[in-house]
């Protein structure tokens, strides 16, 4: 008996707008994990990246094809936007002729996927290349935009080019719905695998060059102003005034100018030796093992920060600003502690509370593991994405 169309393996081309060579973003990790999950289920999968990628090795091990094709993306999808001169420059760069887009179109024509998955809002060129070949587009949104003409402009492109839109959280779906595009949107939270590392906390700290004493609070990810790194440092200083046993770690990549500001903020207060800035890490496993509490202090709406998912999966409680999709993951008082955005004193109090109560940290960590397993597992994520990709492909 011939195989039913609905059961046949899909052919999916994943288009990544980023290819971080050292410290991949949460969006890149999420794309790679989805591609690996579909490949393990027998689907034909290729990831098209714009350059050398730290995740290339893990993709190859999973049997995922990787194609490097540089193409321009539209860097106007930040929450706060940029200055008008910089916005005009970014727009001109995007609209100038792009040989990479023609190469991408030729590649898609030869590879002939059933569906093209466009990762993140900036990859307009990838969506256009797919639509030019009449290939269905699934656009995976991991951004939140504020109201205004810029948001309306992006939504018009989504309406014209996307057959299906995936929002990583209800917070992301809300702004798309406000622009009248709810009919195309499905909310599918990212997935995460449970941590199974045999490293002890002390071994992980030694591996990272960190002291073994104290309750370590970590902020990991991109080191950028809107990620709340300065707010984290200020909260840490306040917390140290009440609980001197605390330590703080920051790891990630960011502009050197802003890193200097962070170092200056640390050096301007008391006990700078309690703060540690680590080099970017390709994976979070060792960082999470070394850390007692994960903090998130993003000052703009954070769509669905992967740091929180990974913290729960590793059994680490979270202290964070109630930003964007964070509250869809963290159960306040059960898997972590949430405070209002910008409440540095409240963040400090949460750090102190968990530093003084190791039994509460353990209970929240266990609850986080259960929540990650029940609501954010990779199997559940791949199930939902597989169904949506089949629908987009007409299966």
Strand percentage, roughly? 15-25%
Q: Describe the biggest sheet?
A: 7 strands, parallel
- Overall average residue pLDDT: 94
DSSP E strands, number? 13
**Which architecture of the largest domain would the CATH scheme give at its second level?**
3-Layer(aba) Sandwich
Question: Radius of gyration over alpha carbons?
Answer: 21 Å
Q: Number of folding domains?
A: 2
Tell me the CATH superfamily of the largest domain: Glycogen Phosphorylase B
CATH class category of the largest domain: Alpha Beta
Helices and strands, in order, run as EHEHEHHEHEHEHEHEHEHEHEHEHEHHH
Low-confidence residue ranges: 1-5
Amino- and carboxy-terminal Cα gap: 18 Å
Structural class: alpha/beta
Q: In CATH terms, what is the fold-level topology of the largest domain?
A: Rossmann fold
Please report the number of helical segments.
16
Could you say which overall geometry the principal axes of the C-alpha atoms support?
Answer: globular
Helix content: 40-55%
Strand arrangement across the biggest beta sheet: 3-2-1-4-5-6-7
